[in-house]
Amino acid sequence: MPNEPILDEALAFTKAFLESSAVKSFPNFAKHISSALEQPVHKGIPRLEARKYIDLYEVDESRNETVLELAKLDFNRVQLLHQEELSQFSK
């Protein structure tokens, strides 16, 4: 934000901390950090962020297979709904 030096300092500190943490962390966690630094989740499109997170979670050794399967089913269900809506508009 303009004229908010404390926020600029906090952002710079946070980025530096996360970048150094990414180097020291597990490879999958480093991907999460890098992804968040490139584009913060709150600024992204929710469905695209969900898809990106599914890909990252899929390679996580501590993943819960049930949660992963439900996330994939939900994503695919909503994608199918969008495709059906687009086909209705195309007619």
UniProtKB/TrEMBL annotation:
MF terms in GO: terpene synthase activity
Cofactor: Mg(2+)
Alphabetized UniProt keyword annotations: Lyase, Magnesium
SUPFAM superfamilies: Terpenoid cyclases/Protein prenyltransferases, Terpenoid synthases
Keyword Lyase found: yes
GO BP, sorted A to Z: terpenoid biosynthetic process
InterPro entries associated with the record: Isoprenoid_synthase_dom_sf, Terpene_synth_N_sf, Terpene_synthase-like, Terpenoid_cyclase/PrenylTrfase
Protein name from the UniProt record: Uncharacterized protein
Lineage: Eukaryota, Viridiplantae, Streptophyta, Embryophyta, Tracheophyta
